[in-house]
Amino acid sequence: MRFRTELILLALAILLAVIYFADYQRHPLFSQLTVDELYHHRTAGNIAEGALIAEEPFFRAPLYSYWLGLLYAVFGGSTSVARLIQLLLGAILPLLTYLCARRLAGRAVALLAAMLTFTCSDLLYFQGELLLESLLTLIIMLGWMLWLKSEKEPTSLNLGLLGLLAGLAVITRPNSLIFALVWLFLLIGSTASGSGVRWKRAVTYLLFLALPVGVVLLHNLTREEPAFTLATQGGINFYLGNNQEADGISAVMPGRAGYAWQYEDIRFAAELEAGRRFSAGEISSFYYHRGIDEILAAPVDWFQLVLKKLYLFFSAAPLSNNRDLVAFQEDSVLLRYLPVGMWLLGPLGLAGIIVSFHRDRRLRALGLGALLYAATFLFFFVNSRFRLPLVPILAIFAAQFLFWCWQHLREKQWRQVARLGLVALVLLVLANANLYRLNLDNRAQDHFSRGNFLMRQGDHSGAISEYHLALAENYDLAQLRLNLGIAHLRSGQVDTATQYFIREDSLMQGSAEALNNLSYLARKRGDAAGALEFSRQAFALKPFLENIRLNLWYAWREAGQSDSAYANILAWQRDHTLSAQELLLQAATALDLGKAGSAIATLTALLAKDKEERQLSYAELSQAPPLLGSLDTIEFRRLVHYDLGTAYGQTGQLAKAEEHLRRAVAIDSGFAEGWINLASAQLAQSKLFAAETSLMRAKEIGDHLETVHFNLALIKLAQTDTLMAKQQLRLALLVDSTLTPARALLLQLE
Description:
The chain is mainly α and about 750 residues long. About 70% of the residues lie in helices and about 0% in strands. It contains 38 helices and no strands.
């Protein structure tokens, strides 16, 4: 059977993918989406809902988010289905490895390379994650396969498809341009045809490459604040990997921001230093320049850091990024038994590249592409998933190296065997030596992530247990006490929560999030002065966090200082765009100050706006939610209609007031204040029966009964039923003996 080997390879890979998926589903963190995964999940969700064009330049090269968005649109946003589809597509990789290796080195090498790819635990694991490397690896291997085919069949179709794949790789991860350039040079440098034909082929290739790249560049250039790159994260990543505190493997900002930095943190720092607002592209440029300045200030240290990154890229080290890889693989029944990893592919793959460099032009091109691609990460930082697109390529070279060793051994060429064996031994020892003595098993972060997942599931006691395990591993882990405080608060342990927030603030030498939560607790216990003090401190540290601004403005209102809240909101609005929730609070504060016209304008605009879209920060994506959460859509619309009804009532537009208050109680029939204000609007229009009906609905709810009885008294007076009016006034005073209007009216009637 002609394709029996290929079909067997594909069937085995699919079977392994399905077994792993079943194994993964049993893992407690199967549903947890960490930092980058959650970023992709949220952006893909927006795309699936129809938000195809972003308002700002892309922060990351966008193809993976659109690919995931397509899966969500077809399969209803299921992360489980998306993982399964990626694993099934990833099952093609051993087959592609086999096909490429067979063209390059023959069937024996191809079979061995395919088996090395098939049994690689890293490759299988990352294919199941919602990360761009799963798509990128497939695109790059398809590209190499198509280039090998184009060598023998340089048709316009093959060249166009190769160019298109190159462009798609670039808009998945821009440094894939290395492979695109290697393919271009191979087309130009081919000796199989004349120079005119070679250049014609190159032009065809470049035209198709330019299609996807041009679309993304056009998008970024036509935004209100344009960027001249495919993504605006480049400068930030450059600084993360090259600042004087960088370790080469962590996305950690120097100073207090640490690993939990948010995009707004670094934007704020850049703008504060420059004294002006920055666009996204300018922020990237700022951090490129900052990174270069730090490199030039200590070039020897930087060079040592580059050597460290180079070593780690090809080493056996499991370089975790979003999740503790060591802990995860130990928990997986399947992954821990798959024998192949970078401990083998790194050193033997490098040995194969070295030995084959002068033997075959095509192998030299493949090896050079792999080395240059790896070199691009030396300018940023390295981790295990960045190596994924090289796994099949390294498997081909590792298989080629082992085959040559076997050939020389079989032919009793002992000198060659000794030479190759020495190369392999040295590289194997170096790759597995952990020369930098890194702690590769970050259990504290693993427990912290599990705690965050349990918190989102509502299992607060389980989250507390995981947080304490993290605390035992790393006493100084940032934000650990913050989340411990939140978990204890949601378990009803307010005093314990308060202590953890205080400790977090002390440990971090000023934690805006902890101070904000302390302000929230002070507000809840009626300590207006304390709430304001904590809010001001939090705002001084991180005014760019919406939650902190809202808390400060609420604290001012509750302290009877609506004028201060309103002035601060307007001051912030002069240079920033307010969120929907901030605009709602602005309108409510305007009502406090009798500015009904301003409130009506703001609230009407809010109703016309379907929904707010904004880019979520890394901190929002990776941590437990803050205490002062965002309003859900139903509650938000209820409050907009309620405040509009109140505002129209203040301006004497009673029919409009009644209309919006009816909408508020239609959205939430248990909204007592809505029924009471609706009754007031109806009473002012002499709709006595309707007003009484609304008040009886409020009475059934059982909130604000003193106001209900007082307004019922007014209705009875309008109906000239003085006896019933006095009875309602006495009931109002039974609920609240300090209700002065009720007492005064009762005295007047008696």
